[in-house]
Amino acid sequence: METPGARARARAAKDRMRLYQLPYSHNCAKVKIALLEKGLAFEAPPVPAGFTRSPAFLAMNPLGKVPFLVDGDVVLGESEVIVEYLEDRYPAVPLLPPTVEGRARSRWFSRFHDLYLGPQLSTLFFALSDGRAGRPDFAPEVERLVELVALFESVIDPAPYLLGAQFTLADAPFALSYHYVVTLSAAHNRPLAASDMPKYARWFEAASRRPSVSAVLAAAKEALGGA
Q1: Structure-derived torsion over alpha carbons of residues 94, 113, 30, 184, reported in degrees to the nearest 10
Q2: Per-residue exposure over 111-122, b if at least 16 CB sit within 10 Å of its own CB, e if not
Q3: Running DSSP on this structure, what letter comes out for residue 23?
Q4: For 77, phi and psi rounded to 5 degrees?
Q5: Is 7 helix (H, G, I), strand (E, B) or coil?
Q6: Which of 26, 112, 212, 223 could bond 36 through an S-S bridge, CB–CB 3.0 to 4.6 Å?
Q7: Alpha-carbon gap, residue 103 to 213, rounded angstroms
Q8: CB–CB of 219/23 below 8 Å?
Q9: Which 3 state secondary structure label does DSSP give 39?
Q10: Which uninterrupted H or E stretch holds 77?
Q11: Per-residue confidence at 12, pLDDT binned at 50, 70, 90?
Q12: How much is the mean pLDDT over the chain?
């Protein structure tokens, strides 16, 4: 016979926040960092059937994309929507600045990452396995990454984080992406070292000391086979 305590534990397990994700995805990393910074308990189960276009996952999330959050009756996709939801729903540990101007700047950095830097990194990542990397006409894509990193470098002045002393949602997207900038630029024979992006490197040195960031980076590197 099921006891009240067992029923309560089963309910708690059922209601626990779940983040369907791929540990090497920079968009998933952003959400995981936000969850960890806020101290929220969550599970990170594997995507049903092992891939995002599986019928089981599409039944949950018709877009078939990760990250995908289940928080009780709330189901959400798209990383930026998820982190904004977490900020509104769980404000005890704020990850947006208190001022209107600061919030706008944080959102600008997030949009820069999600619309420009992140997609370019994805292009270079998948080009290594689909045959595009070795083609002469792919070289402009590599140079585009260099240009985006230079643009980012020109608009930041970490102190120690992008918006000053507070770690915010502006910072969360760029941690795993720094790792990808270094590894993918080298893989495409156009290496970018810390000396080529000293402000970004200085930011990364500070950010990577945070437990949330170091945990997410370690999980991503493990999933990538230590690359």
Answers
A1: -150
A2: ebbbebbbebbe
A3: T
A4: -115, 180
A5: helix
A6: 212
A7: 21
A8: yes
A9: coil
A10: strand 74-77
A11: very low
A12: 92
The residue whose two tokens read 């990193």 is 149
What are the C-alpha distances in Å from 39 to residues 33, 116, 222?
Answer: 10, 29, 23
Beta-carbon contacts of residue 39 (< 8 Å; ≥ 6 apart) = 93
Residue 16, pLDDT score: 85
Residue 226 has what pLDDT?
Answer: 62
- pLDDT for 108 equals 98
Ramachandran area for residue 225 (φ above 0: left; ψ -120 to 50: alpha; else beta)? left
* 139's tokens: 């070289």
- Do 149 and 181 touch, CB atoms closer than 8 A? yes
Residue of 213, 104, 196 lying closest to 153 (CA atoms): 196
Q: What is the pLDDT confidence band of residue 174, given thresholds at 50, 70 and 90?
A: very high
Q: Helix H segments across 62-173?
A: 79-89, 100-112, 118-130, 139-155
> Which domains are present in the chain?
4-89 (3.40.30.10), 100-223 (1.20.1050.10)
- The tokens for 111 are 């949009």
Sign (positive/negative) of CA torsion 42, 66, 105, 150? positive
pTM: 0.91
